[in-house]
Amino acid sequence: MLPDLPSLPFTDPVLIFALAMVLFLAVPLLFERFRIPGLIGLILVGAAIGENGFGLLARNHTMVLLGTVGLLYLMFLVGLELDLAGARRHKSHTLVFGLLSFALPLGLGTGLALILGYPLRSAALIGAMLSSHTSVGYPIASRLGIVKTQAVTTVLGATLIVDLLALLVLAIVSKASGALDWAFWIGLFVPLTIYVAVVLVLLPRVGKWFFRTASAEGPTEYLFTLAALFIFSYLAHAAGIEPVIGALLTGFALNRLIPEHSALMSRIKFVAEAIFVPFFLLSVGMLINVRALAHPSAWVAIIGFVAVAVVSKGIPALVTTKVFHYGKDDGFVAFGLSVSRAAATIAIALVGYELHVIDEAVVNAIAVMILVTCVAGPWMVARYGRAVALREEQRPYEPNAMPDRILIPISNPKTRDALLDLAFILRGSSPEPLYPLMVVSDDTHTDAGVAEAERMLSHAVLYAAGADIPVHPLTRVDPNIASGIARGIAETRSSTAVIGWDGSRPASRYGIQGIFGTVLDQVLDQTTQRVVVAKLGHQLKITDRVVLFVPPAAIHHPGFSDAAHMIKVLAANLGASLMTLVLDGDGRRVATLMNEIKPTVAITVNKVETWGRVLGELERRLSPNDLVVVMSARRGTVSWHPKLDRLPAQLARLVPKSFLMIYPGVRDPVAAPASPLADGAWPPGLSPARVSTDLVDMPWQAAIRHMIRPSFAHDEDALEEVMESIVRSHDDLSTEIRPGIVVPHARVPGITNPLVFLGVSSAGISFPNTPNRAHIIFTLLSPMGEPQAHLRALADLAHLVASDQRLNELLRLCNVDVVPILTRIGPG
């Protein structure tokens, strides 16, 4: 016997939830096939299945609850993701746009309502409904990656201004049954002021305390944010404002405590996009009474409200675009984000209807206006946001914008997650995965060590997955831990290594006091990439300020700009200010250089006169939630000073919480820029013993064999292996670097440094896939495990032969008659 079919509307909670999940899955997929944002589809489907459509679902307490939760969650996410530094930097933009987009619709809406015959009190409430806006298109802007652009930051910052003023009008109208005397205004603004102060002052302090003391494992942090969201949204009633403003303020309050690239933010966004926001959009659609459109009289109010809604938000977007020189696409995105009405508008309409200030005709007209604007707004954001995103991607390349590839050696379970959190923040929006590395000592317990390494790395993979960050876990077996780390950096071609340090006293090595201890000191000696040594004693998310110490001559280090960019990314993602202490240097020069490097962060620069005052100055200026960063240097580099080696141990005693020592990357000697060659100097990797000036017309393999044979005279097998590698690498490729000059190259085993061989042939030699006969042949062999060194050496050879001047100098050094050779090759 078949079960009874469910009656309409559905009342079974399991069936309701099942239907909602199917719609959340299928509707966006279907609409996006027709290039219509999925958000619009959910609103339209909500109208179709609601009580005023096919009647599948009723807008009962369950749907109101879920829709309200989704609305509050969306407003919370807007406040959480707002670029506060950008909003402060462009506060004039936010203020102009906010005041214009409130005052213009309020005036036009009130005037229209008066024309339609509504009394002043009702007309003012209608104007307030039209003045508010909800950034329904925000999830689209977030997915396009344009949330940090100037126009989007301006609109999101103005959302608080507009909605707060609109809800103040609601408070005045709802309470203005009597005289608007001083007691009325005190009763209105005193609770509101107290509430805002509690949210923006007390909540961040409680949040810092909680994140400092609570475990980051499991759902604890996420549950704290949800508790804060709904508690302070509810308490907004006591201040005489709607919960949506409380949700937005809560997002602002926790903004700096939840980094954009963190596991917690990933969880918040995931739940928003999967559950809560779709329920809100569905509930908005269910408000639409399609049947009311059958009455011609209703269309007068509908057309009027829609026209005012569009015009009154279009003009502020146009004015702001012209005044502040935004692009045309930015202007349309700003309009798309501000034209949608939902959150505060719904709240004002429902309160006004319950107070009998507005009638059902206004509610229906407002509902249709909400539908039209909630469809148009996301479409505008999707249509023009793609152009903005494409423009951002095609900005001129800047060296400090190069994506970082970060390797994280891990060994201590107590510091593992903290190091990964730091790497998440330093990675920023780089598309590169992270490389957690475990080096296992090569001893009799290797199998057990590898098993433990796999266990540690599996946790790292899961932890990173929670933050939606790709990782490539690595395990290395090496008798020397430092060598294993250095090899991992080279093999992955990582630009940065993030390594933890426990702050213990450094070991003595060969009678010389070490910096950190044997392993870390060896890593610094064996690598040229940027190394970040981290002593982390508190959660980075509670950091208020990054204190950067810049020693003398640091700005002359070739890796200064890249390191400074990383430090500013760290400060920006933590929402922290950046205070710079400059020792015995030009503070204004340092400030200029730092301000030229992206991203933009609030920076203050202070000078310290002598090394002896550094620790005292730090102790005087530091507060508990500061993060100290030292722009250090390796020995032998231009900015190194002996006191830098003693500074970590001193900071470990001075700063009990957290600090970073950053060692900027330095170029390997093999990769040093090619000359002009000094008298008697040879390019790196080349020597007189590896020069052949007597090459005749012969097969190209024979020519290379002749060039490299002296270096492999005692190992014929190695010679054959090298030849096979070269032939295998160049059967299908041209090695011509300019007409008449070829550079066959390969990475081969058995050598420790790149080797360069030079051959000169007056007759010329034919190489595969090369139209010109080669008169100058550079053969480059690099160690098998050092692809980065190989590429750098190859680039430097290309730089060397790019001009006749450098070739002239090199050929004269080899006692070659320059003129005949240069006349046979193409121009440089």
Report on this model:
By secondary structure, this protein is an alpha/beta fold. It has 29 helices and 18 strands. The strands form three sheets. The chain has a ten-stranded mixed sheet with strand order 3-2-1-4-7-12-11-8-9-10, sandwiched between helices. Strands 13, 14, 15, 16, 17 and 18 form a six-stranded mixed sheet that branches. The chain has a two-stranded antiparallel sheet with strand order 5-6. Strand 8 (545-550), helix 21 and strand 9 form a beta-alpha-beta unit. The longest helix has 34 residues, at 360-393. 47% of the residues are buried.
Can you give me a brief rundown of this structure?
With 828 residues, the chain is an alpha/beta fold. Helices cover 55% and strands 11% of the residues. Mean pLDDT is 80; it is low at 396-402, 507-513 and 668-680.
Biggest sheet, spatial arrangement of strands: 3-2-1-4-7-12-11-8-9-10
**Which regions contain 5 or more consecutive residues with pLDDT less than 50?**
396-402, 507-513, 668-680
Percent helix range: 55-70%
Number of strand elements: 18
Global structural class:
alpha/beta
Biggest sheet: strands, sense, closure? 10 strands, mixed
Shape: elongated
Strand content: 5-15%
Q: Compute the number of helices.
A: 29
The radius of gyration over CA amounts to 33 Å
- Arithmetic mean of pLDDT: 80
Distance between the termini: 88 Å
Write the layout of secondary structure elements.
Blueprint: H1 13-33, H2 38-49, H3 61-81, H4 84-89, H5 91-115, H6 120-131, H7 138-144, H8 150-175, H9 182-213, H10 220-235, H11 243-254, H12 263-286, H13 296-323, H14 328-339, H15 343-354, H16 360-393, E1 406-409, H17 413-427, E2 434-441, H18 446-466, E3 474-478, H19 481-492, E4 496-500, E5 508-509, E6 512-513, H20 518-526, E7 530-535, E8 545-550, H21 560-574, E9 577-583, H22 587-596, E10 603-608, H23 614-621, E11 626-631, H24 642-654, E12 659-663, E13 691-692, H25 700-708, H26 716-730, E14 736-738, E15 741-742, E16 745-748, E17 755-765, E18 774-783, H27 787-800, H28 804-813, H29 818-824
Parallel strand pairs: 1-2, 1-4, 2-3, 4-7, 8-9, 8-11, 9-10, 11-12, 13-17, 15-18, 16-18
Antiparallel strand pairs: 5-6, 7-12, 14-15, 17-18
Helix pairs in contact: 1-2, 2-12, 2-16, 3-11, 3-12, 5-6, 5-8, 5-13, 6-8, 6-15, 7-16, 8-14, 8-15, 9-10, 9-11, 10-11, 12-18, 13-14, 13-16, 14-16, 15-16, 17-18, 17-21, 19-20
